[in-house]
Fold this sequence. Notes:
Blueprint: H1 7-19, H2 22-29, H3 33-47, E1 52-55, E2 58-61, H4 63-90, E3 95-101, H5 109-120, E4 124-130, H6 133-141, E5 147-150, E6 159-167, E7 169-174, E8 194-198, H7 204-217, E9 222-227, H8 230-238, E10 243-247, E11 258-263, E12 270-277, H9 283-292
Parallel strand pairs: 3-4, 3-5, 8-9, 8-10
Antiparallel strand pairs: 1-2, 5-12, 6-12, 7-10, 7-11
Helix pairs in contact: 1-2, 1-3, 1-4, 2-3
Amino acid sequence: MSYQIELRHIRYFLAVADTLHFRKAAEKLFISQPGLSRQIKEMEDQLGITLFDRHNRQVLLTNAGLYLKQELSNNLKSLDAILNHAKLLQAGKDGQLSFGYVGSAMQHIIPELLLKFTQNHPSVLFSLKEMDNQKQIEGLLAQDIDIGFVRLERVPRGLEIYPLLKETFCLVLPKDHPIDRSNFKNIAQLKSEPFILFDPEYSASYYEKVMEIFDESGFSPMVSHNTIHADSIYKLVEHKFGVSIVPKSLQTVNNDSIKFIELDTISQRTVLSAVWDKNNINPMLVHFLNLIK
C-alpha cells in the first residue's frame, strides 16, 4: 500500500496536534485555516484514519492521532538532525553538539572535555546552555540537546547516565567569619546562622543530599534564600546574608570576600554525571561518549 503523504502533511498535522486548535496552528504555519483543514483532511483520507475528533469547537486527538504525534515527533527530530548534519558537512564542519549543563560542570569538566575533543574534531560546532536538571531531562527527551551534565541519581527510561565526578561539599563563609579551618569541627557550629542554598527545583535530589548533611548534624537549617546560581550565593554570603554549602568544584579563588571549608569528614558526596538519549543518532555524540568513557 502506498501513501502520498508529504513532509508538509506531517508538519501541518504536528502543528495542530500541539495546539489542538486549527486557527492557532494556521497562524503558526502562516497559512489559511481552510487550507490547513484541507491538508489534514487529505492526510486522513490518504491514511484511511481519523486523526482528530472535532466537536463543540473542541479538537481532540484520536488514539491513532496520539500515536502518530508521538512517533512522528521523534522521527521528525531525527530527520531534522540528519539534514542539519548534511548542511554542516557541506559547510566543511564535522557536525554539531548541543550541551545542557548545571553551573558547576562549566568550572572544569566541560572545558577540559571540549579541549580534548577538539584535538581530533576541530570543526565541530558547540551549543552550550546552562539549564537546571529537569529542563535538561526534558531537552534530552525532546532531542533539543544531545548531552546533559546533571546532578541526578536516576533518569527516565530511555536515557543513559554516566558518573563523571564524585566530590565533597564545601562550606561558604564570609572572609571575616570567626569559624575557619583551624577551629571548624562540624556544621552544627553554624546552626544559628541563616543558610543560602540552591533552589530545590534546580535539583531535588541534590537538595535532599544537602538536607542529609543537616539531618546527620542534628538540626534543621534556617534557609534565608534559595537561588539557582553560584554567583548569587557568593554575593549573598559576601554581604553576610548567610552561609552556604556548595559542591567543591564550585570553589573559587576569584573572590577575596568569601572563604571555603571542605567538608571532607562527612559521608555525603555529590556526583556530576553525563546523561544522553540512547536513541540519539547524532554521529558526533558517539565520538564524544567514547571520550568521556
